[in-house]
Amino acid sequence: MALGDSRSKTDQVKPKDQFDLLHDERVRSVVYQLLTAAVVGWVGWYLFTTTAHNLEMRGMDSGFGFLGFEAGFDPAFRLVAYEVGVGTYGDIFLIGILNTLYISFLSIIAMTLVGFSVGVLRLSNNWLVAKVALAYVEIFRNTPLLIQVIFWYTGIFSLLPQIRNSLDLSAGAEVVLLNNRGLYLPWPVPGDLLWMTGLALGIAIILAVLFRRWAHKRQDITGQLIPTLIPGAALIVFLPGIVYWMTGSPLGWEIPELEGFNFAGGATLPPAFLALFVALTIYHSAHLAESVRAGILSVGPGQSDAAMAIGLRKNRLMSLVIIPQAMPAIVPPMISLWMNVVKNSSLAIAIGYPDLVAVFMQTSLNQAGHAIEIVGMTMAFYMFVSLTISWLLNIYNKRVQLVER
User: Fold this and answer.
1) What is the pTM of this model?
2) Model confidence at 203: pLDDT above 60
3) How far is Cα 90 from Cα 296, in angstroms, rounded to an integer?
4) Are 177 and 263 in contact (CB under 8 A)?
5) Pairing between β-strand 251-254 and β-strand 257-259 as defined by DSSP bridges
6) Residue 387 belongs to what H/E stretch?
């Protein structure tokens, strides 16, 4: 047999693949990306230069120097100190951001709690409870949010009793009062040693978390179930309470008191804030309730049967078995709902709540001009908040995803 014939097929040299510049997939991918970047860059450059030219032709200033100019108006509601004649448009921008984040944060917490509660009640075995939850969802989910905002403002909070006939929500203590000018609440006045109580609270929370982790590890090893809710809550309550009592109760309260035609002291939430808060909470909780119901139904009935078979009590079944497995289906739509709460808070302009759109993109724009800068800053704020919410909840979503084996 010839030497050449003894060479096995595996030893034969395969011809090299020919490189085709026009049909190579990697080359096409890079070329398409470069073309896309070039088109986007050209469009951006064209818009920028055209806008700058038009502003120059009309003698209009551009830039962000106006943020240091004096703002000649006072927002009706603010969380930071502000003085008319001294405060600038930069201060107004900050006030608008804080007001928007304040109403959005409280509404997100409330709508999450209400949405989960209504979603669970939708699956109740009690016919009346299930139908009431269904009516709640169908009515508020299918009504435009703007109409709900106006309804709560003009039809509810604006028709409350006047100052002297305020509703006492504190059971006769006259410290929480509600009338057509808003909700009046006590305001805390911290003392010098209150920081020690805060430190004790932080330590108590850390200890409660460590105790819970230890109890779970012990349960995994021995199977022994150690209650953590009551001991953890007691630790969080009693440790700061003892420190608070030993430091002389360094916390006072400023109580609203009637002086003339209005209340003085304490904290005040205007009717526009209350109406927007209620509308945002109810509208978005109705959407979340359906997501919660769908997530619970996505968990197979065998999970409940298995939990009951190993002796798990019915009152712990939902919180320990069903909800944790339903969270992967609940979190994605909840991300969108949280972002929508922040963006839909801009409807406050319809009832006069001084959010970012009302005080900055409306009043400030009308006074100072600089429409491009003001609109751009407002859009950047909402985009930043939405992306932050999406990023944080996506981290949580990855943690609750079920791992396939």
Assistant:
1) 0.81
2) yes
3) 47
4) yes
5) unpaired
6) helix 371-400
